[in-house]
Specification:
This protein has 175 residues and is an alpha/beta fold. The chain is built from four helices and eight strands, in the order E-H-E-H-E-E-E-E-H-E-H-E. Strands 2-1-3-7-8 form a five-stranded parallel sheet, sandwiched between helices. Strands 4-5-6 form a three-stranded antiparallel sheet. Strand 7, helix 4 and strand 8 form a beta-alpha-beta unit. The longest helix has 16 residues.
Length: 175
Amino acid sequence: DDIRFGDYYALVIGNNNYRHLGKLKTAGNDATEVAVILRRAYGFKVNLLIDATRAEMLLALSKLRATLKFDDNLMIYYAGHGLLDEIGQQGYWLPVDAEESIPTNWISIDNITVMLRAIRAKHALVVADSCYSGTLVRTGTVQPRTAKEKHAWVKRILGKRSRVALVSGGLEPVA
């Protein structure tokens, strides 16, 4: 009862209908369902983007950067194509206007990470359902076991910013 969690925002992206890449079957529907659950069950303020271009995705992130406050919480859900540039050792999210061999419209995981640092929300969770999404994470786990340990952990991190990612795969394609 003595813990205040702030407001909850979500950017939910589901890309199916790629202009220059193979179309996906479930990303848009998955994103829509995630958005519905976040709104109805958890009271999130959700921005849902279906078949988003690079400009639309970056604009949505920029708006979050401009508007979220320190006490806010953010979830970013991305379902769509991902790509690993093996030469540059960099992972990318691919908007619907991306082309496989032309990186102009790719969004690098580094861009996402920098934007997450710039967004003032105290806590941010990224859920990435894409190939090569493992480039987004680094190792580290916290597993409090009892309710008392969980309460102490939450109180300890309340004054700090946290960034957490859940990804569907490592450095490989995802079925």
